[in-house]
Amino acid sequence: MEASVQEDRQAIRQGVRELCKDFPSAYWRDIDKHEKYPQEFVNALTKSEYLAALIPEEYGGAGLGVTEAGIILEEINRSGGNPGACHAQMYTMGTLLRHGSDEQKRRYLPGIAKGDIRLQAFAVTEPNAGSETTRIETRAVRKGDRYIVNGQKIFISRAKQSDLMLLLARTTPYEELKDKTQGLSVFIVDMRNIKGNLQIDPLDMMVNHHTNTIFFEDVEVPVENRIGEEGKGFRYIIDGWNVERILVASEAVGDGRWFIDRASSYARDRVVFGRPIGANQGIQFPIAQAYARVEAADLMRFDAAAKFDRKEKCGAEANMAKLLASEAAWEAANVCLNTYGGYGFARDYDVERKFRETRLLTIAPVSNNLVLAFLGQNVLGMPKSY
Ligand SMILES: Cc1cc2nc3c(=O)[nH]c(=O)nc-3n(C[C@H](O)[C@H](O)[C@H](O)COP(=O)(O)OP(=O)(O)OC[C@H]3O[C@@H](n4cnc5c(N)ncnc54)[C@H](O)[C@@H]3O)c2cc1C
C-alpha cells in the first residue's frame, strides 16, 4: 500500500480520536441513562465531514471508501461511544448511491452531507418474517403516480429522529412469484411530509438505539421516491449487505479494543491479596486471548474492506469479518466484566453499558447464525439449511 494512503488513514484515525475526546464516557453514560439522542456528537461528526464519509465529493461528501468509513466507526466505538446514530447513515448509503437515480442523489445527498436531512432509519424487519426477509408482508400498491403502503415493521431504529426512512416493501404478492427474491421494492419515505397514517411506537430495548414498531396505514409514497426498478428491492438491499457487515465488524473491533484497554489497565492497577490482579494467570491469560482474537478479526475486516474498495468479490470475507469480530468483541466484553468483578456492574465504570451495546452486534443487523448459513451454503457448497 502506498505510504500516502497509510498516512491519510492514520490522519483519519487521529482526527476521529481528537473529536471523540470532546465526548467522554460521562457524555455517553448520560445519553444512555436518559435514552437521549446524541445530537451534539452527531453535529460534531457532521461538521468534521466524517459522517458523510461515503457520500461522493460531487454531492458534498468526503468520497472515502469503506476502509476509511470502518476506521471512523472503529474509533468511535474504541473511544467508548455508541455510533448507532452514525452507522445507520453509512449502512443505508450504499442502496441510494448504487441504485438511486441522479435526481434522487441530487435531491437528498447534499442535504444529508450538510446535516440538514437525516437518513438514519432503515425499515426491513417485520414480526412475521424475521430473518426470512423475502417473507415480508408490508404492501406497497401502485395507484397512478404514488404507492399506497400498508403494513407493520418492527425493531426500526431512529424512526423518530430521522427525516428519511429507507423502506423495503412488497409490490407483488408472495404467492404470485416464481422467484421469491423478486417482488420487493425499496422506497425513500420522507417522514417530514407524510400523507396517510404513520404510527411510530417506541420499544423498551436493552440498548439505546431509539427502536420502534411502525404501522403504515395508507401511507402515500410518490413513484419518484422508489429506488431503482420495481420488484428488484431485495437485490438492492443484498448489495448493501457486504458494506454493512464490514462496518459492523469495524465497530466490533473498536469495542473489542475498548474492552481490552480497560481490562488490561484495571488488571495492572487493582491490587487484591497484595498484588495486582493482572499478575494472576486466571485474569491475565483471558485478556491476552481476547486481544489475540480481536486482532485476528481486525485483519479479516481490513481484507474484506480492501477487496470491497477494489470492487472485488468479498461476500465470504465480509461475512467472516462480521462473525469473527462480533464474537471477539463479545469475548472481550465478558473478560473485561470478569476483570472488573463487582465494579463491572457499576454504571459509572461504563463496562456494563458497553457490554450491552456490543452484545447486539452478534444479533443485529444480522444474526451470526445467518452468517454461518451463508458461509456453509455459498462458500462451502453445503445444502441449504432452511
Ligand atoms: C436494537 C436493535 C435494533 C434494530 N434495528 C433495526 C433497524 O433499524 N431496521 C431493521 O430493519 N431491523 C432492525 N433490527 C432487527 C434485526 O435486524 C433483527 O432482530 C435480526 O435480523 C434478527 O431477526 P429476528 O429478531 O426477527 O430473529 P428471528 O428471525 O426470529 O430469529 C430468532 C433466532 O433464530 C435464529 N434463526 C432463525 N432462522 C434460522 C435458521 N434457518 N438457521 C439457524 N438459526 C436461525 C436467528 O439466528 C435468531 O438467533 C434491530 C434489532 C435490534 C435488537
Summary, kept brief:
By secondary structure, this protein is of the alpha+beta class. It contains eleven helices and ten strands. Residues 122-125, 130-131, 155-157, 205, 207, 209, 211, 360, 363-367, 369-370, 373, 385-386 line the site of flavin-adenine dinucleotide (FAD).
Kindly describe this structure.
The protein is of the alpha+beta class. It has eleven helices and ten strands. The protein has helices spanning 3-21, 25-33, 39-47, 66-78, 84-99, 102-114, 233-269, 281-309, 315-340, 351-360, 368-379; strands spanning 119-123, 139-143, 146-157, 164-170, 184-190, 197-202, 211-222, 226-227, 271-272, 275-276. A four-stranded mixed sheet has the order 1-4-5-8. A hairpin with an 8-residue loop joins strand 6 and strand 7. Helix 9 packs antiparallel against helix 10 and helix 9 packs antiparallel against helix 11. The radius of gyration is 21 Å and the shape is globular. The mean pLDDT is 96. Bound molecules: flavin-adenine dinucleotide. Residues 122-125, 130-131, 155-157, 205, 207, 209, 211, 360, 363-367, 369-370, 373, 385-386 line the site of flavin-adenine dinucleotide.
